[in-house]
Design goal:
Elements (H helix, E strand, L loop, with lengths): L3 E9 L2 H32 L5 H14 L8 H19 L16 E5 L3 E3 L2 E4 L3 E5 L8 E9 L5 E8 L11 E6 L5 E3 L4 E2 L3 H19 L6 H35 L2 E5 L11 H25 L2 E5 L25 E3 L6 E3 H18 L1
Parallel strand pairs: 8-11, 11-12
Antiparallel strand pairs: 1-5, 1-7, 2-6, 3-4, 4-5, 6-7, 8-9, 9-10, 13-14
Helix pairs in contact: 1-3, 4-5, 5-6
The structure holds zinc ion.
Length: 363
């Protein structure tokens, strides 16, 4: 559930900072008025609806000549274009009047930015710097955007829009690679292994037995059939609960401990040999695991990255990079003929996933 809240603080910028804030406000007004005129012109002349993306690239061009625009918070100008675009959309839907030009004489004015934050007991505004503020209450949650405004009495404020649905975790340095498998569910580059809970296997065997029984019962109307069906449904539910509980705990642990989590793109592993039902249940677990990580990643401000599915994470030596083409599925230990590295197969893969992931993100 999304919970959006606003927080408004009075800020106390010095004279120099006031000058930059005022300059940003006028640059936003300049951008608004310029693009409003341009949009109007393009629409009347060519029937073209200049959208945000197009305006954004035009703005980049304009900045080359109107260099004063580069001296203020660039996200403020972007937000101005977004607001203009929204106003036009609303206008075309008949929800509001045609957008108006902004006057310099307006004593109350503001601009929106996505990079303003609270740091070390002060509010940080790009290009303006750290500003003192009166903190009436602490922000809980993730800051989405902020508006810097000036009142008619020349007082300055920052209003934050905050997503309180979840609290972001503080940034950390640690990263991890995770190798997923059938035997060991997850093996991490921290040399930790996580087994899927045993009942999952026990129940899977029992489930199979029940399903075999059910397939032999010809009459759907019989009492026994209904009894069996219910038993199977209950077992499915129990398996799902155990699996989800396990996945929730594992994903939360990984998210808490790491800023970035690197995984393989699934479906490639030699899973075909395994029994159908067990495979189906675990496959489903893998998919759900990745989905859960991604959702929690967004909630808590962590990055989840899947590496290229053709990257040979198992057959590469994590020590020297040697490619061991003849590595068999039964080889539990990776022994490198090139550098004498001898390491657990899955551990080796997880280290490779980590290094490959970092490489693909940072080049
Ligand atoms: Zn090696």
């Amino acid at each position: 559930m999304k919970k959006i809240k606003g927080y408004k603080y009075r800020i106390y910028p010095n004279l120099e900072q006031i000058a930059i804030i005022n300059k940003t406000i006028s640059c936003c007004r300049y951008t608004w008025n310029g693009f409003l005129a341009l949009k109007e012109f393009r629409y009347k002349e060519f029937g073209e609806k200049l959208n945000y993306t197009k305006m954004s690239s035009i703005l980049t061009q304009i900045k080359k000549t109107d260099t004063f625009l580069t001296e203020v918070d660039s996200t403020a100008l972007q937000q101005t274009l977004k607001q203009l675009d929204n106003t036009f959309t609303m206008f075309f839907k008949g929800h509001c009047k045609f957008p108006r030009f902004k006057s310099k004489k307006n004593p109350r004015d503001s601009y929106k930015s996505t990079t303003i934050k609270i740091k070390d007991g002060k509010i940080y505004i790009p290009k303006v710097g750290f500003v003192e503020y009166s903190n009436s209450r602490d922000i809980k949650g993730r800051v989405l955007s902020a508006v810097v405004s000036k009142s008619a009495t020349n007082k300055y404020y920052v209003s934050f829009t905050v997503d309180e649905s979840s609290e972001q975790l503080p940034r950390i340095e640690k990263e991890v690679g995770v190798d997923l498998g059938l035997k060991i569910f997850a093996f991490t580059s921290d040399n930790e292994k996580y087994f899927a809970p045993k009942p999952l296997w026990k129940y899977t065997a029992r489930l199979k037995k029940l399903q075999r029984k059910l397939s032999k019962k010809p009459s759907r109307a019989s009492k026994n059939y209904e009894k069996l069906r219910l038993q199977i449904a209950t077992l499915h539910e129990r398996i799902t609960n155990i699996r989800n509980d396990f996945l929730h705990k594992l994903t939360t642990k990984l998210i808490r401990e790491n800023q970035s989590i690197y995984l393989e793109d699934l479906n490639v592993k030699g899973m075909s040999k395994n029994k159908k039902l067990a495979k189906a249940i675990l496959d489903c677990g893998f998919g759900y695991f990745v989905q859960m990580l991604k959702t929690k990643g967004i909630m808590y401000g962590r990055t989840i990255h899947q590496i290229d599915r053709w990257f040979p994470s198992s057959k590469t030596c994590s020590c020297c990079g040697y490619y061991k083409a003849d590595l068999k599925l039964t080889d539990r230990v990776f022994e490198c003929p090139s550098c004498d590295n001898s390491v657990d197969r899955d551990y080796n893969a997880s280290i490779n996933i980590l290094t490959e992931g970092i490489k693909s993100i940072r080049g």
